[in-house]
Structure formats: structure tokens, C-alpha cells
Design brief:
It contains two helices and eight strands, in the order βββββαβαββ. With 128 residues, the protein is an alpha+beta fold. The protein has one domain: 60s Ribosomal Protein L30, Chain: A. Strands 1-2-3-8-6-7 form a six-stranded mixed β-sheet, covered by helices on one side. It has a two-stranded antiparallel ribbon with strand order 4-5. A hairpin with a 3-residue loop joins β2 and β3. α1 packs parallel to α2. It is globular and about 40 Å long. It holds the Pfam family Ribonuc_L-PSP. Belongs to the RutC family.
């Protein structure tokens, strides 16, 4: 019997290549794939500020977690990918409205490029 189950929801962006929105593993953990600021209703990247994109990404992650039986309060690890180091502070301003103490463990790395030319991508792991 498989110890992983795919999470599928129309309320978050549909995968555009070979990946799952998220996985439930051993009925204990939820792992989301990296999310970029795609509006689930249009399937397109949103316009607006970096903060608008981070807000939508974290809303989409919250939706995937809920579909998997978890929520943002149970997140224990977050990985953030940014293209521009000057976006670190604005990203944190939004991030801190979604998470509270004790904050999840977190890694933030700066990369040369991200899918579809966006500037931020976020993934997380949570307990169920």
C-alpha cells in the first residue's frame, strides 16, 4: 500500500508539468510543491507587487494544506526562492501576516530565475 496520496484541488493553481500540488505522506505530513503567484481561476500569473504575489502564494498554499487535512499553523518548514535580494524585506512583511510564533523553520535562497519569469516561489511541509 502506498504511503503517499496526491492532493488535488481546483481552488489552487493546477500543475502545468509533471508534479502534484501536494502530497500526504504516511497520513502524518503534507508537502506542497513550490507555488508561484498563479491565480487558480485564470491559470495565469497575477500582476501587481511582490507583496501581492507572496500573498496569493500563501493563500494557495493554505488551500492545498486544508485539502490535505492541515493548515498554516501546522507548517514546520518553509523554503522560499527569490530572484532579487531587495525583495527579502517586502516578502517578510507579508509572510509575517500568515505565520506566528513559533515560526516554522525556514530557508530563503536567491536564484537566477524562476518558472514563467516570476520573482518568488514558496513551498512548505506541515503536520496533519
Amino acid at each position: 500500500m502506498s504511503t503517499k496520496k496526491e492532493i488535488v484541488t481546483s481552488e489552487a493553481p493546477a500543475p502545468v508539468v509533471a508534479y502534484s500540488q501536494g502530497l500526504i505522506v504516511q497520513d502524518k505530513f503534507v508537502y506542497t510543491s513550490g507555488q508561484i503567484a498563479i491565480d487558480p481561476s485564470t491559470g495565469k500569473l497575477i500582476n501587481g507587487s511582490l507583496q501581492d504575489r507572496v500573498n496569493l502564494i500563501l493563500q494557495n498554499i493554505s488551500t492545498i494544506l486544508k485539502k490535505g487535512g492541515s493548515d498554516l499553523t501546522k507548517v514546520f518548514k518553509v523554503n522560499i526562492f527569490l530572484v532579487n535580494p531587495v525583495d527579502f524585506a517586502p516578502m517578510n512583511q507579508v509572510y509575517e501576516t500568515f505565520f506566528s510564533k513559533p515560526f516554522p523553520a525556514r530557508t530563503c535562497v536567491f536564484v537566477k530565475a524562476l518558472p514563467l519569469g516570476t520573482d518568488v516561489e514558496i513551498e512548505c511541509s506541515a503536520e496533519i
